[in-house]
Amino acid sequence: MIETIKASFADAIGAMVGYLPAIIVAIIILIIGLFAGRIGGKVISKVLDKIGVDDAVEKTAIGDTIKKSGMTTVGCFDALIRWFIYLVFIMAAINVLNIPMLAGFVQQVVLYIPHLILGVIVLVVGLIVADFFLDQLEMQLTAREVEFSEIITSVLRVIFYLVVIVFALDQLLIETTVIYTFLVPLAWGIAAGIAIAMGISLGWGLKDVVAEYVKEKLKEGKKEE
Q1: Which phi and psi angles does 70 have, rounded to 5°?
Q2: Which domains does the chain have, with CATH numbers?
Q3: Closest CA to 122 of 171, 183, 184
Q4: Are 149 and 142 in contact (CB under 8 A)?
Q5: By CB neighbour count within 10 A (0-12 exposed, 13-18 middle, 19+ buried), where does 13 fall?
Q6: For the chain, how many helices (H) and strands (E)?
Q7: Report field, pTM of the whole predicted structure over 0.90
Q8: In this predicted model, what pLDDT tens digit does every residue of 117-155 receive, in sequence order?
């Protein structure tokens, strides 16, 4: 029995010694991944800081919520890029250690992170563009003294935000068929209502202009007679 125990112990030691190079390589890969992730995150955060992403996002509907949470958009992208790089190197280390079960799980997470990053990009860029476009539209409507301009732009803003959120959810591979079923008819109905309201507003606004124009023409006709 003692000989059996000694043989088993010797086999275990031999297996550990044989596995040691793989463990060392895996540790080296993880260390490299740690530094690569930090560098990648810092580079992305500096680029986004120079572009002024945080300032642009603060002007959107979710900007105030993000600010109150203590997070920043730049910080969110920093974390996403870091963890994407970390997980890539973790997957490489697991492959070196030859652990198929863990490798499959980490691979699924790594493959999902680009969708997560794209979803955040769609959400942030979409909200910024929607706010810019609608701010310009509101200025134009206000300058032309169109009635209900604030209500019109507020409703349009909600529709645009919903569309952007749905597109972002699509990138996250979240099922949005049910949302589309309700969103499309709602958007068309609201758009039709806004078009009618704008038509009525513009009609009332142009009524005085047309009347004034007709009066001037009649005056000119009388003078010529």
Answers
A1: 85, 0
A2: 1-98 (no CATH), 114-225 (1.10.287)
A3: 171
A4: yes
A5: exposed
A6: 7, 0
A7: no
A8: 898 888 888 888 888 887 777 777 777 666 667 777 777
